[in-house]
Amino acid sequence: MHLAAITVDCANPAHLSTFWQALLTGDLSTPDEEGVITLTLPGGPQLDFAPVPEAKSTKNRLHLDLRTTDYSRDAERAILLGATPADDIYPGDGWRVLRDPEGNEFCLLRPDPDSPPAS
Questions:
Q1: CA 15, CA 21: separation in Å to the nearest integer?
Q2: Residue ranges making up the domain that contains 80
Q3: Which of 18, 39, 42, 82 could crosslink 47 through cysteines, CB 3.0-4.6 Å?
Q4: Taking 60 as the threshold, does the pLDDT of residue 35 lie above it?
Q5: What is the Rg, in whole angstroms, of the alpha carbon atoms belonging to the chain?
Q6: Distance, CA of 103 to CA of 83 (rounded, Å)
Q7: Predicted TM-score (pTM) of this structure
Q8: Do 62 and 91 belong to one domain?
Q9: pLDDT score recorded for residue 116
């Protein structure tokens, strides 16, 4: 058994998949017969964006943690792409919680202290 994909239920797969592609890079598929769009991440799992009729209503039970190489730059970039701060959820020194354009929470983690600095 292995992880094949992480699926994000959403109202607008085209819009949301474009946000995530701009943030993480990768290749987007055309929608399949059910309207699912796949973002294939370089070296990682794929993200599937599946259309659903209901809106997000509560905090996610599962979210993505994204390790940054430049914490301030990456947080600013995510916000410029359409993320919004979610400072009401789990404030911490080692991460920042943001919401994607449909309200799904994700965390930006500070660089790994054991990694070489970004150039």
A1: 10
A2: 56-119
A3: 39
A4: yes
A5: 15
A6: 8
A7: 0.89
A8: yes
A9: 54
pLDDT at 60: 86
In angstroms, the Cα distances linking 100 to 6, 16, 46, 72, 90 are: 15, 8, 17, 17, 16
Q: Annotate the chain with three-state secondary structure.
A: CCCCEEEEEECCHHHHHHHHHHHHCCEECCCCCCCCEEEECCCCCEEEEEECCCCCCCCCCCCEEEECCCHHHHHHHHHHHCCEECCCCCCCCCEEEEECCCCCEEEEECCCCCCCCCC
Shared domain check, 38 and 7: yes
Residue with token string 């990694």: 115
Give the integer Cα–Cα distance in Å for 22 and 77: 10
Judgement on whether residues 41 and 74 belong to the same structural domain of the protein = no
Domains of the chain: total:
2
